[in-house]
Amino acid sequence: MTFGTLFLLASRSLWNRRFTTLLTAASVALSVALLLGVERVRVGARDSFSNTISQTHLIVGARGGPVQLLLYTVFRMGNATNNVSYESYQKYANHPVVEWTIPFSLGDSYRGFRVVGTNADFYARYRYRGDRGLSFAEGQAPQGIFDVALGSEVARELGHRMGDPVVVTHGVTDGPALLKHDDMPFRVVGILSKTGTPVDRAVYISLQGMEALHIDWGDGAPALAGQRTPAASLRAEDLEPKQITSFLVRLKSFPAILSLQREINVDESEPLMAIIPGVTLDELWRTIAYAEDGLRIVSSFVVLVGLVGMLVTLYASVNERRREMAILRAVGAHPRTLVALLVFESWLLGTLGALLGVVGMYASFLAVRPYVEREFGILLPLQSLSAPEFWLLGFVSAAALLIGLVPALRAYRNSLTDGLVIRI
Fold first, then answer.
1. In which element (H, E) is residue 166 found?
2. 86-135: per-residue pLDDT in tens?
3. Please, are residues 234 and 215 in contact by the beta-carbon 8 Å criterion?
4. pTM of this prediction?
5. Listed range (8-12, 77-81, 105-109, 383-387) with the worst mean pLDDT
6. Comparing C-alpha atoms, which of 173, 176, 149 is closest to residue 160?
7. DSSP label of 117
8. Strand stretches in 15-144, DSSP E
9. Which residues pair with residue 114 across a beta bridge?
């Protein structure tokens, strides 16, 4: 029997059982789409996290854990165990090998979003996803003490517009605020354009604004009502920061990174720590590698379940097709032809399911990509299939070919007489 005849018989046989064929191919497609999707989400998450910060050579903060410093500085997750004196910041900001720095002062929040004190260098120098800089969808960067700029997600979720008041909460909290800086309200002067990074989910004020919030605070508590400094009397020149949380550093030359890192780490005047973002990100990914491996294992078992489901369907269909097989034998088909037919049908089903899985994966990504990027800051990649993904599709097709041998061997054993007997 020629290949063309075999293909014609197999395709017509599958079409005659199109409902079962569709369900079987769909089960394989869903499992393949899940496996490909999990891998792409993993890659997208890594790339999105890695590209949250670009063109920054060092992150400097109080001595502690490198991953913790990365998380609270870049991703606004967790809290610093200590602060950095402003004198130390200025010392390294004016270092001969340093091109620029971006200071951050953290510790307060606004309706569940982190409040970040920084300066004009943040808006001018910060880079993400290669060479993308920050821009404003509306307004401008904070200029006055009580000006505030909102990340795009903050403005969207809270419905804020230009000129709206913002009352900062003392400390980081997602629930009801216990202490509010209601005596020093801010005013929205800018809304940042969307970046798809943690920048979108923060509120930005000046370093002087952060100092103003805590000017009357002592021992973690505010001054009494009659002893508070009026907001109108505060001037920027009188509010030089005493401490910051951390700062980003870019150097004039790449070879100077390790020498400056060592200089900062052994600084005897203050216990500081400098980390290289890329190296620490790798450490972070190694920390959560178990979760990635777990997802891969689960999705691989889903593919296995899909293939086993196909095997069960094909094996069960042999009983229903005994008369069909017998008729083929009666018109002269060799038993090896029946084996080839069933194996080819299985291969067609597996290949069809794999291709539908690829289409389903791309369709799902196109549908959910804007939502995932908006809600989680993860950019799902839509590039063509990679070499490992082609290998995966080849594996599914090869597995389907082998699976087809099981029902084929059973059909091979069925005798012509058994197939023609009418059972009552």
1. strand 165-166
2. 999 999 999 999 999 999 999 888 988 999 999 999 999 999 988 889 99
3. yes
4. 0.73
5. 8-12
6. 149
7. E
8. 58-62, 84-85, 98-110, 113-118, 127-128, 132-133, 136-139
9. 109, 202
